[in-house]
Amino acid sequence: MLISAAFTHADDTPTVIVFGDSLSAGYGVDFDQTWVALLQSRLESQGYEHRVINASISGETTEGGQTRIKQALENFESDLVILELGGNDGLRGFPTEVIKDNIRSIIETTRTHGAAIVILGIRIPTNYGARYTQAFEAIYRELAEEFDVPWIEFFMEGIALNDELMQEDGIHPNADAQPLLLDNAWPIIRLALTEN
After folding, report:
1. Global model pTM greater than 0.90
2. How many domains does the chain contain in total?
3. Which domain holds residue 116?
4. pLDDT along the chain (196 residues), means of 10
5. What span, in angstroms and rounded, lies between the C-alpha atoms of 120 and 102?
6. Residues with active-site annotation
C-alpha cells in the first residue's frame, strides 16, 4: 500500500485518510500538485492541525479497498476517511450489487474504528447502457442515505468533459484540474471536520 503524507507529525495529530484510486493517487501529476497535497495545504492555511495520508492506489477497485481498509485504519488512527472508489469497477462493468456491498463494508469498517467518512461519488460513461449507468450512480446516493454519510454526486464535476482539464487518455484529470477537484470535495470535508 502506498502511503504518503506531506508532513510527519506526532501520533496524537488528527489524521485524514484519502482512500481512493488514480483520481486521488495523482496519476500523471506531480505529488505536490495533487488535490490531496492541496488539501493538506488548505487545512493548514485554515488552522486545522490534521495531517493528510494518501492511501490511494491507481487501478484500485472497491474489492481491493474493502480488503485493505482495516489495515489503513490500524496503521493510522484516522479521524476522517475520504472515500473515492468505484470508478474502476464501473468502467469494467462489475455487478452493481457487488460494488455496493464492497463500499458498504468499507463504511462499516471505518465506523467500527471510530472514524467519520465522506463519499466522493463517481459517474461513468454509458458504455454498458443506461440501466447499468443509472444503477451504478445510485450506489453512492443509496449508501449515503443508508448510513447518513456526507457525499457529493460527482467528484469530477466541471472537469470530466473539459478537454483542457484532462490528460490525453481522457480519463485522468491533469494538474490544472487538481484545485477544482479539491473545491468539489471541500464542502463535505469541511462539514465532516466541523461535526467531528
Report:
1. yes
2. 1
3. 4-195
4. 42 91 97 97 96 97 98 94 98 97 98 97 94 97 98 98 96 97 98 88
5. 15
6. 22, 169, 172
